[in-house]
Fold:
Amino acid sequence: MHRLTVLEVELLRDHLALWKGEAHRAKASEDQLKQRLQGLEAELEGTRREGKAIYAEMRRQCQALQEEMETRSRQLEQEMKGLQEQLETCQRKAEVAQREAEQALREWDWTLAQLRTQVADMEAKYEEILHGSLDCLVAKLRAIQPQRKVTVLRLLTRHKEQLRQFGLNPLDL
Structure:
């Protein structure tokens, strides 16, 4: 059971690492899209300035250049709109990944708390079993103690008699 729990914890950690990686990739993609959007905005602004300079410089080509600039501007705005939508999508995905990572952390914390509770319960049960075994052992030792005293007294008496047979006083020793 402990091995299964360890495997579950490892699985949750792996799952959390995958979600963190996904969140990091989404954040990197969001940053790239923001940079590209800024570049397009700068390019759009440059295109507008260029159109004004050309208009002031070449009046007769004004109409053709203005149409070209407006076409390019619409394309850039459409592309910018598409990029903004992609950015919003990436932001939503990043938020979802963040929520899922937080949920995974909460689940991991909950699982860890349950495991700690199980370990504490097991420790209490083992302690109860140990105390029961020790109480049983003490009871058995107390039960044989009177018999042991009798056996020790017999041995002492026998040794005293043997010493006396050899003419020795046991109290002198």
The chain has two helices and no strands. The radius of gyration is 45 Å. The longest helix spans residues 62-165.
